[in-house]
Amino acid sequence: MASALSSDAASSRSARLSKLYTLVLRGKREIQGVADAKLFLEAVCDQSDRSACIEKLIASPQAFGALAKSLRFDVSLDFLIGSSATFLLYLTDPALKQLCSGQFLLRILECIAEPPTFWNALFKAHKEKKLTTDRALQSFAWLLLELLSAHSDGLPDVREVAQHVTDDRSLIDSSSLEVRTLGQKIKHVLLTTLTTAAQECVAAGPGGRHDNDFQDFRQIAIYPTPDEFSSNERPYYRRADAIDQIEHEKRGSAHLDNQFRLLREDLLGELRNDLQIARGQKKGRTRSLTIRNLSLQGVDCGSEEKRKTCCLTLLCRDDIPQLAKKKDAGARKKFVTESRNFLKHQSFGCLVSGTELVAFATVNRDEGLLASMPPVLVLQIAGENAFKKVLLATKSTYELQFVQVDTPVFAYEPILRCLQTKTDLPLAEELLYLEPERDRLESILKPKLIIERIRTHGNQNLHTLLRTPKSINLDDSQTESLLQGLTRAVSLIQGPPGECQIYEMSVTNIQRLIIVGTGKSFIGALLAKILTDHTPEKILVICYTNHALDQFLEDLMDIGISGDSMVRLGAKSTPRTKPLNISEQKSNYRRSPASWEIINQLKSEAESYQGLLVRKIAAYRTLSIRYNEILEHLEFSEDETDFYSAFSVPIQDDGMTRVGRQGKAITPTYLLDRWVMGQNAGIYENSVAREYPDIWRMNLASRHSCITRWYLELFGETVSEVHHVMQQYNRCQERLGELYGEKNADIIKNKRVIGCTTTGAAKYAADLQNASPGVILVEEAGEILESHILTAMTQNTKQLILIGDHKQLRPKVNNYALTVEKGDGYNLNQSLFERLVLAGVPHTTLSLQHRMSPEISSLVRHLTYPELHDAPKTQNRPAPRGFQDRVMFITHDNPELEAARLIERRDEGSTSSKENLFEVEMVLKCVRYLGQQGYGTDELVVLTPYLGQLQLLRTRLSEENDPVLNDLDSYDLVRAGLVSPANAGISKRPIRISTIGDSFLFGSSYP
Questions:
Q1: Whether residue 604 sits in one domain with residue 572
Q2: Are residues 376 and 359 in the same domain?
Q3: What pTM was computed for the model?
Q4: In which region does residue 882 sit, left (phi positive, over 0), alpha (psi from -120 to 50) or beta (all else)?
Q5: Which run of H or E residues covers position 540?
Q6: How many angstroms separate the CA atoms of 416 and 262, rounded?
Q7: What percent of the chain lies above the pLDDT cut of 70?
Q8: How many helices and strands in the chain, by DSSP H and E?
Q9: Claim to verify: residue 707 and residue 611 sit in the same structural domain
Q10: What distance in Å separates the CA atoms of residue 48 and residue 41, rounded to the nearest whole number?
C-alpha cells in the first residue's frame, strides 16, 4: 500500500514538472528565483527522451534563456552538489552527441560556461575539495572533458584547469570508477592537444617566429598571414625518426603535430611559388589573372531565398583585361557565361595592397556582376581576421589588387582542418608504437567461423562458401593475404606490380588482359564482402582519386555486395556508380518539429544580421575621419597622449577669439592641420613646439605614417563592429548548413559500405564520425599520404586494411625538400603503408601475377620483385600483330630539347621540362601502324616521363584522336596554362596518354 502511494506521488510530481516544463517552453512561465530555477532543472531532468528534450530547449528561446538563468541564480555549494550535478549527469547520454553532429550539445555547453559564473564556482568548489559526492565530482569531470575536447570560440579555454586536476590527481585517484575513467580521458586529451614541444620545453620548438607560429598546432590558421609569408625563418617540423624517439604517451600528439606542419608546409611552398610566378617575381607559365584598382562596393550574402556565407563585393574600376575590348553588354554577358573557366567559381587568389599581401580569398562567381560595366568581383575572404584586414585595406591609399593563383588549396584545406580537430589517434599501438599484434580483432569483429573455413578450404573453389556470383579460386599468397585482412587490426597487403599492365597494353590487345594483376583489388573486394556478410561493422572504402574509387566500388558490386547497402560521397561517378551517389539516395529521414523551429529561428536571426551588415558596410564605405575625431582618439589613447597635448590649441582665458594671418580664427585643429602639412606650430612655435620638440621635429614621412595609423585605428573601431556582425551571420549560416545536412548524415549512417576519396573523407568528417565505421579499407595505399588516412579514421576505427605496393609510386608532394628522395629525413611522401612495411610490421605479398606476358614480367622480376611468378594463363599468348617482339628498346641520336615554357614543379632545381619531337613522330607512326593491324585507339596507352613531352604528344595525337589524360596529368597541364579545362576530356577516338612519374616501367596511376 505504501509503495502504491509512493508511486502515485511520484507520478503526480512528474505530471506537475511536465506542466512546468511545457509552460516555460511556450514562454508562459518565467524563472524568477532560486526555487523556480531548481524546479525547472528538475523538470528538464524528468524528461525521459533526452534527445527530444534538448532539441526543444534549443528551439525555444524562452526555455534556453530560462536554462541560462537557472544555472546562475544560485551557485551555492548545495546547488552545485545537488541540482546542477543532476542536470550535468543528465547531459552525459551519448545520444546527445549525435544530435546535429554534436552542435546541440555544444549550444548547451555554451549556455553553461559563458558567461563563466557557474563554471568558475564549480571549479572553485572542486579546487577547495568541496565537491564531496561522487555524483558531483563526476559531473565536474564530465563538463571539464567536454569543454576541453570541444572546438568552439564560444567556450572558455580550460587547459590550465585540466592541467591542474591532472597534476593533483584529484580525478585519477578518485574512489569512483566513473570519475577515474574521466580523469584518464582528460589526461589523454590534454597530452594530445598540447604540442610535444611545449611539454618538453624545447627552446628551439614552435612558436614566436611570426604571428601565425604557435606551440599548439591547432591555433595555426590554415592560410598564411602576410607576416608569415614574409618570414625567412625556417618553419618548425620534425624528422620522421625524431617522432619514434618520443615517449609513448606523447608520441600520438607529436605525430599529429608533425603531419599537420609538414602537409601545411607543402601547401605553403606551392602557394608561395604560384604567387611569385603570378606577380612576375619568378619564371614560370601560369593561367593567373591580376585584377587591379579594386574598391569596396558592399557585401553579398545571396538572395533572400538562398543565403550563403558572407562575401565582399569589390568594384573593378579598371576593367578586367579579358573584358576590356567588349563594350557591348550582350557580348560581355555571353563571354562570361560561355567561358566557365574565366574567374572560375571557387578559384583561389590573394588580395594585394601595394607590395603587401592582405588576405587570401576564393571567387564566388556571379555572372551578372562580372559582366557588368564596370565589373564587380565577389570574394569570400579566407579567415575571419583577414576580413578585417581587407576592409581596412579598402581605406588605404594603396591600390588594391586581386591576384589569381593555381594552387589546389581545396586538396589541402579539408585534411588540415580535420587534423586540427583530432584529439585521439585510433590504433596508435599498431601505427605508432609498432607493438606486437594483440589478439583482439577476432573478438571484436567475430568472423571466426568463416576464418576457420577459409583456412580449411582455401585451396578449393570458395564460390559457395563466400556466396559470390562467380568462382573464387585463390593461390596460396592470396589466401594468406585474405586471412591477414580478417585477423589483424592493421593488415598490409602488397600487390606487385600495380600498373605494369599499361606498358603491355600499348602493344597488345587489352580485351585479353582484363584480369586483375596479382589480385590485390580482388582481395580487397573479397575482404569487404566477408566483413559485410559476417560482421555488423560498417566499412569505409577510401581511394585517392575518383576514378580509382569508382573502379573499386564496381568491384564490390561485382563480388556480390548490394548497391542498396552502399553510398558514394562526392559528386563524380560512372554510369554504374551514379546510383550510389548520396544525391541519388532515397531517405525516410524527416526533421522533427523542433528542428524546423530551430531552422526558422536561425533564418530569422540571419536575416536580421544580414540587414544590419548591409547597413554597416554602406556606412563604412562613406565613412570619413575628421581631424577633431583624431584629436579625441589621441586624448583617450593609452600611450599617445603627448601627441594630443602637442596638438591642443591653448584655451584663451579672456574670452577673446585668437586669430592668425588674414584674420582667420584659430580652430581646435589648427596645430594638427599644420603638423600634417609638414609645417611648424605657427603662432604657437614658442610655446607648444618647445614643450614637445620631438613631435614637431618629425619629418613629413613620419608624420604621414602617424596620421595613417590613427586613421586605421579609427576605421578599425567600425571594422570591428562590422566583423562581429559578419561572424554572427556566418555562424547562423553554418548552423543552418549543419541542420540541412542531417539528411545526408542519416543516409550515411544507415549504409554498410561508404565510399569516398581521401579529400571527401575529410569534408564529411563529422558525418563519418557519427556513422562510426569500424573498418577502413584503403586502395592503392602506397600512393596516399599518411595524413589523408589518419584524418579518415574515427574514434571507433577497429581495423585498418591497407592494400598497395610501397615499391611503386610514392604519394605526390610539391615540396621536394620534404621528400624521402631529398634525404633530409622528413619523409612527407612516405605513405603509411611504406612506413609500416619498412619498420618491420608483418605484411603479405601477392606473388602470382595474372596479367603480363613472361617477356614483360621478367623485367620487373629482375629489377624489383624476385618472388613474382607467372600464372599459367599468361603463357603462350598470341604475339602482338605487326611487331616482332613484345618488348623493344629503340636507340636514336635525336637529342631532347628544353621545354622552357614550363617547369617540372616536383623536380628541385629544374628550370624547364623536356620534349623530343622525333620521339613524338615515332609514337604517332606506331599508333597509326597498330591501327592498321586492327587495334583500336581505345586499346592503346602512351607513357612519357616529362610534362613537356606529354603536351607535345597531346598536340600531335589530337590531330587524329582526342588523347584521354588521367586526372593528375590533366590537372598539371591545365595549371601550366597549356590546356584549357574544357579541352581535357571529350573524345573522338580516345587514346590514353599519361606521364609516368618516377619510374618508366611502373609509373602510371591509370587503371
A1: no
A2: yes
A3: 0.78
A4: left
A5: strand 539-543
A6: 10
A7: 86
A8: 43, 20
A9: yes
A10: 14
